[in-house]
Design brief:
The complex is a heterotrimer. Chain A is mostly helical. Chain A is built from 17 helices and no strands. In chain A, α1 runs antiparallel to α2 and α2 packs across α3. Chain B is globular and about 60 Å long. Classes of the chains: A mainly alpha, B mainly alpha, C mainly alpha. Chains in contact: A-B, B-C.
Chain lengths: 457, 172, 111
C-alpha cells in the first residue's frame, strides 16, 4: 500500500492518542542510525501486532469473567464469586484447569483437520482487529476495502467451525458443523446487505474514512441507519454462534456440537476464540455504527482508543444481554427469519438509502437540514416495517411449520403412562386424519401434537 | 515493474504455497481434504491479486470463493454418501496428465516468445472507486446482464434441487 | 545495503507462469477426477488461473484503460459463482436420480 502522509496531533512521540507520533519517532531513530527505510514499517507493524495480541489476551481473560458474571446477574444468580475479589481470578483458574487437562483426540478423528480447526477459528477474529481504526491515524493496516475484508474474514471463521465438526468424526459434531454451514449461507447475505447500506451512505469502504464521515457530520450512523444496525446485529450474532442462535453447539440438543470431542487447551482455544470473535464483531459495530474512536468532543480529552474500547464493551454488553435473556431458536425458525425478514428488509433499506443519497446529492441541501429528516424518516420506516411484519407475517412463523418435512416420518412411541388412559383418542385420528387435540386439554400430550406418524391429509 | 522488496518476497512465497496446495487438491484421497486445500489455494490466489495491486478483486475472491463457493462444495460433498467421497481418478488420468503438461509447455513457450509491452506504471491506488465508475459507465450493460445471469442461475439451482416428493406433498 | 537477492523484481513472465501452472493443475483435475464435485473444483481452479493472468496484464502491460483487466476479473468471479451454484445443484440432482456422482457411471444420455 502507498504510504500516507502523517498528520500529527502533537509533537510528543509518547502521546498515545496517536500512533503515528510513535511511528514518526521510530522513523527518526532508524534514519539517525542509518537503517534501511523499510525497517520503520517492520517495527511499527510488529509493535501494532504486539499491541493487538496483548489486547486479545486481556479480552479472552476478562470477558470470561464479564460473560459469566453478567449472565449470572441477569438470571438471578451470583455468578463466579469465590476466587479473588468478586471472583475476578476465576478465568485464571479456568485457564490453569484447561491447561492441565489431557488433550484427547478420538482415534477415528481426522488428525490434521482436527488440530487445525481451533487455530483457524481464532485467526479471523485477530486479523479483523488489524484493519480497525483504534484512534485517529491509528490503524495497523488501513485498507481501501476494509469492510469487504471484514466480511471476507468473518465468513472464513464459520468454515473453521465446519472443519472442527467434520474432523471430530462424531455425529453430534457433524450436526453442529452442518448447522453452521446452513446458517453461514443464510446469514451472510443480510449482513453484507446491511453493511452495503452504510457504504452507500458514507460513500467509502475504508473504515477510517467511515469514522471520519461520522465525525464530520457529528452523528453516529446508527441514528441514520437503525434498520441495518438491527439486521447486522442479529446476523452477526448468528455468525458468532451466540445464544439466541447457538444452534451449532446447542448443548441441550447436540451435546456441544462442533466442539464435543475437543478437550484441554484445544477446547480452551475454541472458547477463547468465541469471545475474541464476539469482541471483533462488537468492534466492527462500534466502528461503523457508533463512530469508533470519535465521541463528540470527548476525543480531545481522552485517547481515542479508550473511547473505542468503551464502545466495544457497550456493544458487547448487548450481545451478553441477548444471550442472558433469549431462548434458543429452532433451525427452521432461524433460517426462515433470515430469508423472510432480514433479507427483504435489507433490500428495502438499500433502496431507501440509495434514494436518500441521490436526493442529498441532487438538491445539495445542507447536512443540518437533511440528516434530521433522514433520521426521522428512517426510524419511522424501520418501525413501520417491523410492526407490519409482526402483524402480517409473524403468527404463521411462530407455529410449527406448515409443511412438516421430517416430523411426519418419525414414529414417536408413546410412553406407557400415556398409552393406558386414552384408547378413544386414537380412533378418530387414524380414521379421519383430523388433528386429535381434544384428547388432553393441556396440549402437553405428544399424541395431541403433530409429532405422531400416520396418514396426513 | 514490481520492485518493492517485501512484495517480491511475498509473491514468491505466496505463489509457491498456492501451487503446492493446488497440487495437494489433486493428490489427497479424501474429497473434504481436497475442498479444504482448495480453500487454501483460493486464499493464496487472493494474495497474488493483492501483490498485483488489485485489492478489491482480492477481497471479492476471498468473500466469494473461500467463503461461498467452498461452502457450496462442502454442502455438495456432504449431500452425497460417504462411499463417493474418494478423490479418485478415472482411466483418463494419464492422458489428462500428458495434456496438462503439454498445455503448460506450450503456454510457457508462448510467454517467453512474446514481446510484452511492459508499461512503466506504478501500483494502482484506490481501485475500488475507479472500478465502481467503470462498472457504471462503460460496462453498465454487461453489469446488468450479469445480474440477470445470477438470477437465472439461482432459479435454475432451486428448480434442479427441488425434491419431487416434497412438491407432490405441497400440492396436495 | 540489501543483498542481491532482495533487489530482484517480479517479471511479468513469472506471474503468467504461475497462472499457467494453476491452469494446468485445474485442467488435470477437471479431466481426470472421477467425482463430479472434483471436476467442478478443477474448473474453479482454471477460472482462478485465468483471473491471475488477467490481473497480471492489467498491472503490467501498456493499455489506455489499465483497470479493465480487473473489471473483467470481477465478471469472471460473478459468472463462476453462478456456475458453481448450478453445477452443484446438478450434482445433487444427479445423485438423487442415479445414486452416484461418479462421472464414469453417468454415461447414458437419457434415463
Amino acid at each position: 500500500m502507498t504510504p500516507r502522509p502523517l498528520t500529527l496531533i502533537t509533537d510528543n512521540w509518547y502521546d498515545i492518542r496517536d500512533l503515528s507520533n510513535l511511528s514518526g519517532k521510530i522513523e527518526e531513530l532508524i534514519r539517525d542510525a542509518n537503517g534501511p527505510h523499510w525497517a520503520v514499517w517492520v517495527v511499527s507493524a510488529l509493535l501494532g501486532a504486539i499491541g493487538i495480541v496483548a489486547f486479545i489476551g486481556g479480552v479472552a481473560i476478562i470477558n470470561i469473567w464479564i460473560e459469566r458474571r453478567v449472565v449470572g446477574r441477569m438470571q438471578s444468580r451470583l455468578g463466579p464469586n469465590r476466587l479473588g475479589p468478586f471472583g475476578l481470578l476465576q478465568p485464571l483458574a479456568d485457564a490453569i484447569k484447561l491447561m492441565q487437562k489431557e488433550v484427547l483426540q478420538p482415534k477415528a478423528a481426522d488428525g490434521l483437520v482436527f488440530s487445525i480447526a481451533p487455530i483457524a477459528f481464532t485467526v479471523p477474529g485477530i486479523v479483523i482487529m488489524a484493519v480497525l481504526p483504534w484512534g485517529r491515524n491509528m490503524s495497523l493496516a488501513r485498507l481501501d476495502v476494509g469492510i469487504l475484508f471484514i466480511l471476507a474474514m468473518s465468513s472464513l471463521g464459520a468454515l473453521a467451525v465446519f472443519t472442527g465438526g467434520y474432523g471430530s468424526n462424531n455425529k453430534y459434531a457433524l450436526f453442529g458443523a452442518m448447522r453452521v454451514i446452513a446458517m453461514l449461507v443464510t446469514y451472510e447475505i443480510p449482513s453484507v446487505l446491511a453493511l452495503l447500506g452504510l457504504v452507500l451512505f458514507s460513500g467509502t469502504m475504508d473504515l477510517a474514512d467511515m469514522v471520519l464521515f461520522q465525525e464530520k457530520f457529528w452523528i453516529p450512523l446508527v441514528l441514520v441507519q437503525p434498520l441495518p444496525f438491527l439486521i447486522y446485529f442479529i446476523s452477526s450474532s448468528a455468525e458468532l454462534n451466540r445464544t439466541p442462535a447457538d444452534l451449532a453447539e446447542a448443548e441441550s440438543e447436540i451435546a456441544g456440537g462442533y466442539h464435543v470431542e475437543y478437550s484441554g487447551m484445544k477446547f480452551g482455544l475454541f472458547y477463547a476464540a468465541e469471545l475474541i470473535n464476539a469482541v471483533a464483531i462488537s468492534a466492527i459495530i462500534a466502528t461503523v455504527f457508533l463512530g469508533g474512536w470519535w465521541f463528540y468532543k470527548l476525543d480531545e480529552l481522552v485517547p481515542g482508543w479508550m473511547i473505542f474500547i468503551g464502545k466495544i464493551y457497550a456493544v458487547y454488553f448487548l450481545f451478553v444481554w441477548t444471550r442472558g435473556t433469549l431462548p434458543r431458536f429452532r433451525i427452521d425458525q432461524l433460517l426462515a427469519f433470515a430469508w423472510k425478514w432480514m433479507t427483504p428488509m435489507a433490500f428495502a433499506n438499500i433502496i431507501v438509502v440509495a434514494a436518500e443519497v441521490l436526493i442529498w446529492d441532487e438538491t445539495g441541501a445542507s447536512a443540518g437540514l437533511v440528516l434530521p429528516l433522514y433520521i426521522a424518516f428512517n426510524m419511522l420506516f424501520a418501525g413501520v416495517l417491523i410492526v407490519a411484519w409482526v402483524r402480517f407475517m409473524g403468527p404463521r412463523f411462530s407455529r410449527f411449520p406448515d409443511r412438516l418435512r421430517y416430523f411426519d416420518r418419525i414414529d414417536v412411541p408413546s410412553l406407557p403412562a400415556m398409552r393406558a388412559p386414552a384408547p378413544a383418542a386414537a380412533a378418530p385420528k387414524s380414521g379421519s386424519g383430523a388433528p386429535a387435540r381434544s384428547a388432553s386439554e393441556g396440549g402437553g400430550d405428544l399424541r395431541g401434537g403433530r409429532l405422531v406418524g400416520g396418514p396426513r391429509p | 515493474m514490481i520492485t518493492d522488496t517485501g512484495i517480491v518476497i511475498a509473491f514468491y512465497v505466496i505463489g509457491a504455497s498456492t501451487v503446492v496446495s493446488a497440487l495437494m487438491v489433486a493428490a489427497v484421497r479424501n474429497l473434504i481434504h481436497a475442498v479444504l486445500f482448495l480453500v487454501i489455494t483460493f486464499t493464496g490466489v487472493a494474495g497474488i491479486y493483492i501483490v498485483l495491486s488489485a485489492d478489491f478483486v482480492a477481497m471479492a475472491q476471498v468473500l466469494i470463493y473461500a467463503g461461498a463457493i467452498s461452502v457450496l462444495l462442502v454442502f455438495a460433498v456432504m449431500l452425497t454418501p460417504t462411499g463417493d467421497r474418494r478423490n479418485a481418478e478415472t482411466s483418463f488420468q494419464a492422458p489428462a496428465l500428458v495434456l496438462a503438461g503439454l498445455l503448460l509447455a506450450v503456454v510457457v513457450f508462448v510467454i517467453y516468445d512474446t514481446d510484452w509491452r511492459i508499461a512503466s506504471r506504478g501500483q494502482f491506488t484506490t481501485t475500488a472507486s475507479s472500478l465502481g465508475r467503470a462498472f457504471f459507465s462503460p460496462y453498465v450493460v454487461p453489469f446488468e446482464v450479469a445480474s440477470v445471469l445470477l438470477v437465472a442461475a439461482m432459479v435454475g439451482a432451486i428448480i434442479l434441487t427441488q425434491d419431487e416428493d416434497e412438491e407432490a406433498g405441497h400440492a396436495a | 545495503m540489501l543483498p542481491e537477492v532482495l533487489l530482484a523484481t517480479v517479471p511479468l513472465e513469472h506471474v503468467l507462469i504461475l497462472g499457467a501452472i494453476l491452469f494446468a493443475i485445474g485442467l488435470y483435475l477437471a479431466l481426470s477426477k472421477r467425482n463430479a464435485i472434483g471436476v467442478l473444483m478443477g474448473i474453479e481452479l482454471m477460472l482462478n488461473a485465468v483471473n491471475v493472468t488477467l490481473l497480471a496484464f492489467s498491472r503490467y502491460v501498456v493499455s489506455p484503460r489499465p483497470l479493465d483487466g480487473q473489471v473483467f476479473a470481477i465478471f469472471v468471479i460473478t459468472v463462476a459463482a453462478g456456475e458453481a451454484a448450478v453445477a452443484l445443484a446438478l450434482a445433487v440432482a444427479i445423485y438423487r436420480h442415479r445414486e452416484t456422482v461418479n462421472i464414469d457411471e453417468i454415461d447414458v444420455l437419457r434415463w
